[in-house]
Each structure stands twice: as C-alpha cells, then as structure tokens.
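EI: anyone free to look at a 112-residue chain?
SC: sure, send it
EI:
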Amino acid sequence: MADALEAIRILNFALDAIEQRQQVIANNVANEATPGFTASVVTFEGSLAHALATGGTASAQILPEALAPGADGNNVSLAAELSLESATNLENQSVANSITGELTLLQTAIEG
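SC: here you go
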C-alpha cells in the first residue's frame, strides 16, 4: 500500500508541474506580440527522474526559453508553443490515467 501511495504522490507532483507548464505556455502565447518579451519553459522531468533514482525530492523550474529573439526582442515561437501544448496535454492525460489506475488499485485492495 505504501508503494501505491508513493506512486500517487509522485504522479501528483507530475500533474502539478504539468499544470504549471500549461500556465507558462498560455502566458507565452498571450505575449507573442509583446516587444522584448522572453518566453519561459518549465522543466521537471530530469529532476523527477533523479528524485526517483536517489529517493530525493523533485522540483519544477521555470527557465527562459533558449530561442533567439526577433527584431522586436520577443522570442515567442507560436508554432513551438502550440506543439508543446499538444505534448503537454497528452502528458496530462497520461498522468491522470495513471492516478486513476493507482486509486482503483487501492480501492480494490481496501475492498478485498
């Protein structure tokens, strides 16, 4: 049962980080035409993998996007943001499905 609870805790972290990524993507898209705006990205996968391997704690980081700015100093790529949003939505669904599976497993264990 402890393993299932740990899995749910890890999946919950991933879901929170994915939500944070979705908010950052929305902010980037909203500022596509803002001169001087620097897009951001949320990274957490490496930290999560390290935490799983070492038993540590994972964290999500918001970093500046490494794309070159245009003439107005803005570096938002709408195509890149929309592609990342699609991938993020798939990750979100996958993690949500995994949480549902873990909760179903716990419910089965409790009910017998």
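EI: The mean pLDDT is 92.
SC: 👍
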